[in-house]
Amino acid sequence: MTLIRLSGVTKTFPPQTRGAEPVVAVDDVSLAVAAGEICGIIGYSGAGKSTVLRLVNALETPSSGTVEIDGVDITGLGERELRRLRGDIGMIFQQFNLFDSRTVAGNIAYPLEVAGRPRAEIRARVDELLEFVGLAAKARNYPEQLSGGQKQRVGIARALATNPRILLADEATSALDPDTTQEVLALLRRVNAELGVTIVVITHEMDVIRTLADRVVVMEHGRIIEEGPVFDILSAP
Ligand code: ADP
Ligand code: ADP
């Protein structure tokens, strides 16, 4: 079953300076991600990877083409439906984007508070997520007291709080050292295997794709230039 489908998607941004050409960030991209898959998108800086992710979680709307999640075109959604969509899509970032003034538990609880969930339910869910990412002992710590790898585990727990079917990872290990990168990638594999979450990772690091993804999409200048099983695409010639 296809969970995410981009069909002929182009995203153009207005020129940055007067008189310049508009920027075509994503150029006629068609892409289908199956439920349960780990899809990697690789490419140099400026290739259009982040824009693809932002189109998937409706932070950007396509200039043309359609983006469908589970068969629903998300471009015309109202506020209510958008909120539900965002609960169905978690996101993690290179710089973790944690709230420094909130504890680990408070960070993980945040999406559930926004969603207006009852306090007892939030507490139980936060407990469960702390266990899952191995940070039960750090619940009352603040982000500044954590290592980079621990911060990203909090980011992952927060992204999973609302039980999304999709997790989007934007250069999620690029700020981490190699050993910590492996730990976080192992956790993401558990998120996929144990929780059944469909994952899209964007990265400029070949190793991340090799360790994590089932399938890789190569982007350049806003276009998909190659696509296939990781083994076929990334094995050295
Ligand atoms: P990547 O994630 O692969 O580095 P991006 O999707 O961030 O690529 O960017 C693709 C292109 O679109 C770049 O040329 C970038 O400068 C441009 N771009 C991205 N977002 C915007 C925006 N909000 N306004 C103008 N140009 C943008
Ligand atoms: P902050 O100081 O970061 O705002 P709070 O003490 O307000 O954190 O807690 C935020 C949320 O996290 C609350 O919903 C609370 O129930 C939950 N929470 C706090 N500590 C824990 C814990 N040890 N285990 C599970 N949930 C917790």
UniProtKB/TrEMBL annotation:
One CC-aspect GO term: plasma membrane
GO BP annotation list: amino acid transport
Keywords (A to Z) from UniProt: Amino-acid transport, ATP-binding, Cell membrane, Membrane, Nucleotide-binding, Translocase, Transport
GO MF terms held by the record: ATP binding; ATP hydrolysis activity
Ranges where the ABC transporter domain occurs: 4-237
Family: Belongs to the ABC transporter superfamily.
Subunit comment: Homodimer. Forms a membrane-associated complex with FtsX.
Functional summary from the UniProt entry: Part of the ABC transporter FtsEX involved in cellular division. Has ATPase activity.
Full protein name: D-methionine transport system ATP-binding protein
Residue window of the full protein shown: 1 to 237 of 345
